[in-house]
Design a protein that fits this description.
Order of helices and strands of chain B: HHEHEHEHEHEHHHHHHHH
Number of helices of chain A: 14
Radius of gyration of chain A: 28 Å
Largest sheet of chain B: 4 strands, mixed
Structural class of chain B: alpha/beta
Number of helices of chain B: 14
Order of helices and strands of chain A: HHEHEHEHEHEHHHHHHHH
Radius of gyration of chain B: 29 Å
Number of domains of chain A: 2
Shape of chain B: elongated
Number of strands of chain A: 5
Distance between the termini of chain A: 27 Å
Oligomer: heterodimer
Strand content of chain A: 5-15%
Chain lengths: ~375, ~375
């Protein structure tokens, strides 16, 4: 009983010392507390696949009421900005090359005549495919504006509506805003980066400065030293995650559908796995430089192959298997599902047990490596 | 060191070069002895570009979708067959809505297409409806899926019209072409973007710890008592890592070209010139941060914050810059990655577009010059 209490007290003392070491230096304090919130604010605005400003040029060779009506539909959408009215098709190339226009809308000279004759007319769309995703989205916007034009035209000129209408609805994100998808995913991403690195570096620093050896001659047992290193990082991580969560709710006003306790259970599990990986890195690395390099080696794939920006299901199978050791993948899934869908713990099992397994494996391996080094 | 007279200016240059050489050699020995630097310079770029090049894709294919056929009339079955034949969908046929909804809830499918029981009757009457529910979590993907469904239903309606069973109904149809990327392969723009990410990170990482480590260990002060000057220290720190980062860059370009088959339509020289500038900038950022904070822990955190995430989120590599709010867009103008992404996407996919290349290269050159100047000032200050 006494030994357990003693261990707890020692862990607490170490945690306190670690927190002081990290938070005492104002620059270090700032570098831990401010960036997640600032990043969430900036990236929250930046990280969206939705377009609200598309530059386009019109090549209207018809100059008819119908072609003007179609272009007016684009101009009136609030998304499209006409940067040029072209006269010749040969002007198209330079405008796209110089990135002045993302799209060229070309209307042939027979446009209105074909429309009135009932044969149907074409609109040519040329897009700058240097970012093919943006281009695809912009072309989708044009298509829906043309559909609206078709409906209006059909209504005015007595066409029958299309034989099959699609009534589309999106669950959990009715307006299909990417922001709703990105910002909850950032809770885990922004937290992982600094938590993993903080853990890895704090042990590496002690080792580089020789204070780790001093720690070893104290009555601390390896397990207690590890816990004392893990806890402060988890506390910092929890604070960071809370900061991002607050930005999502108070600034971006994304409605929170789930329960906070579920979210924090998931986040704690994630932080445990992240800290475990950080400790493992620090057990392998001999210097701070190595610790930093190795943690970067992990952080980059973790954050890019997490499903934050590109879907996991689009990855080849082999890469999908690799992502099973990525704690962020599960954290992002948990935060999104709890945040947007209100999922409870019963639906999150497939995310929670891999995290638990990752935490158990990395912490055990780190503990084993530490105690082996000490003998 | 025999004639220490400082006024012999004819001897100043060779001596300066000798000092720089000595510093470079010392740094190089350190690099070679520490396997982690080699790993960063040579192995990391290759692993990253392979992993991301294969792993990152925005192409949507084989979407799991539940197709609910409430009444197996031939019209409904025909429409459903369109989904079975499409490479974009992997449909599961079902008879009623509730199990399909359960599947959507459990993320086993990304969407549900419901063909109602009275579908055939309404097709005959010309006012049929199908219901589409998509999982809106990933809005980008949801929108692409909606587009695909529209395409398949559109093809089916056109066939009906061709058979004279319905009237042709879309007065205007859109013919679209995607320049520079006809096949609409997202790796065409992702791989050049990844190159930017990898170079930014590697360049800044390689140098960011260097100065901070010397400060922490006190070895920089012992350097100060030698005749070495601050610009020589900086050069000595930059050159070895420049060689390493360039090596990593070449590996990345080779894999972009030969593994991912991203076309290089512009000139190789333009690519090399712009990339040399950018590598210098990345190294400079790392040096600046580390000589400013003089603490490896903070330097590493700052480097990560200043390079990786901004290059990821704010460079135009994934997200469209023009759609960002003004304040955020102003921030992106301060990021070298923004200019380099524009350059690379053009040089790789569009060719030698001078109206893109010249202004962006000039900005990069100016940034490199400013960084060199500021690094010099920061290091000189600390010499006092």
């Amino acid at each position: 009983m006494n030994s357990v209490l003693g261990a707890l007290l020692r862990i607490l003392a170490l945690t306190r010392k670690e927190l002081l070491a990290v938070l005492k230096d104002p620059r270090s304090r700032m570098s831990l507390l401010i960036p997640p919130v600032v990043q969430a604010l900036i990236f929250g605005y930046a990280a969206t696949y939705d377009l609200n400003h598309v530059t386009y040029a019109a090549l209207d060779q018809d100059h008819s009421a119908a072609s003007r009506q179609l272009l007016a539909g684009l101009d009136g959408s609030g998304v499209f900005e006409r940067v040029a009215n072209l006269q010749r098709a040969s002007d198209v190339g330079s405008l796209i090359d110089a990135r002045q226009a993302l799209l060229i809308v070309q209307i042939d000279s027979q446009f209105e005549r074909h429309l009135l004759s009932g044969r149907g007319a074409d609109v040519q769309l040329i897009a700058d495919g240097r970012n093919s995703n943006t281009a695809g989205t912009a072309m989708g916007y044009v298509t829906s504006i043309v559909q609206q034009f078709n409906a209006d035209w059909g209504h005015d000129h007595g066409f029958s509506p299309p034989p099959v209408q699609i009534v589309a609805r999106a669950w959990y994100n009715p307006n299909l805003e990417t922001r709703w998808f990105m910002i909850p995913g950032m809770i885990g991403t922004l937290t992982l980066i600094q938590t993993l690195m903080l853990t890895a570096m704090s042990v590496a620093r002690e080792r580089e400065q020789g204070t780790f050896d001093q720690l070893l001659v104290t009555p601390f047992r390896p397990f207690e030293i590890m816990a004392g290193k893990a806890l402060p990082s988890m506390i910092v991580g929890t604070i960071q995650a809370t900061g991002v969560l607050l930005v999502a709710q108070l600034w971006f006003r994304i409605p929170f559908a789930g329960s906070y306790s579920t979210l924090y259970v998931g986040l704690l599990m994630f932080l445990l796995a992240a800290v475990g990986i950080g400790l493992l890195v620090s057990a392998v690395a001999a210097t701070m430089q190595q610790a930093m390099l190795y943690s970067m080696l992990l952080i980059m794939p973790f954050s890019l192959l997490s499903g934050l920006t590109t879907p996991l299901s689009s990855m080849p199978r082999a890469v999908q298997y690799l992502t099973t050791i990525n704690p962020l993948r599960y954290a992002i899934d948990i935060t999104r599902r709890v945040y947007l869908e209100g999922a409870g713990l019963d639906l999150l099992g497939s995310d929670l047990w891999p995290l638990a397994l990752l935490a158990a494996l990395t912490l055990t391996a780190a503990a084993w490596m530490f105690s082996n080094r000490m003998q | 060191m025999k004639s220490a007279a400082p006024n012999l200016s004819s001897n100043a240059w060779p001596r300066k070069l000798r000092r720089i050489r000595a510093l470079v050699l010392k740094e190089w020995h350190q690099v070679v002895r520490d396997p982690s630097s080699i790993a960063i310079g040579a192995v990391l770029p290759l692993i990253l570009i392979l992993l991301f090049g294969y792993g990152l894709s925005l192409d949507v294919k084989n979407v799991p979708i539940a197709v609910v056929i409430e009444h197996p009339a031939s019209e409904a079955l025909e429409l459903a067959a369109g989904f079975q034949l499409s490479p974009y969908f992997h449909p599961t046929m079902m008879r009623s809505m509730p199990p399909a909804q359960q599947m959507l809830l459990e993320h086993q499918v990304d969407g549900i297409l419901r063909i109602p029981a009275d579908f055939a009757r309404h097709v005959a009457a010309g006012d049929a409806e199908v219901q589409l529910v998509v999982h809106g979590g990933d809005a980008n993907r949801a929108r692409i899926i909606e587009g695909y469904v529209q395409g398949i239903v559109g093809v089916w309606s056109a066939r009906l019209a061709a058979q004279g069973l319905a009237t042709p109904s879309s007065p205007v149809s859109v013919q679209s072409r995607l320049w520079f990327n006809e096949a609409n392969d997202s790796s065409y723009f992702l791989v050049p973007g990844l190159l930017v990410l990898v170079i930014t990170l590697i360049g800044a990482l390689l140098t960011s710890m260097v100065m901070a480590r010397e400060w922490e260990r006190g070895t920089l002060e012992s350097l100060f008592v030698t005749p070495v000057r601050s610009d020589e220290i900086l050069l000595g720190k930059t050159l070895p890592y420049f060689a390493l980062a360039t090596f990593g860059f070449v590996l990345c370009v080779l894999s972009a070209k030969f593994l991912f088959h991203v076309p290089l339509r512009g000139s190789l020289w333009v690519l090399l010139a712009a990339s040399t500038l950018y590598v210098l900038i990345a190294l400079g950022i790392g040096l600046l941060i580390s000589s400013w904070v003089k603490n490896q822990l903070v330097a590493s955190q700052l480097t990560l914050l200043a390079t990786f995430m901004p290059a990821f989120m704010l460079s135009g590599f994934l997200f469209d810059l023009r759609s960002m709010p003004t304040v955020v867009r102003l921030i992106t103008y301060a990021l070298p990655a923004r200019y380099y992404v524009a350059l690379l996407q053009s040089v790789f996919l569009a060719g030698n577009v001078w109206s893109v290349i010249v202004p962006n290269t000039l900005v990069l050159a100016a940034m490199a010059a400013v960084l060199a100047l500021v690094s010099g000032i920061v290091t000189r200050k600390t010499l006092e």
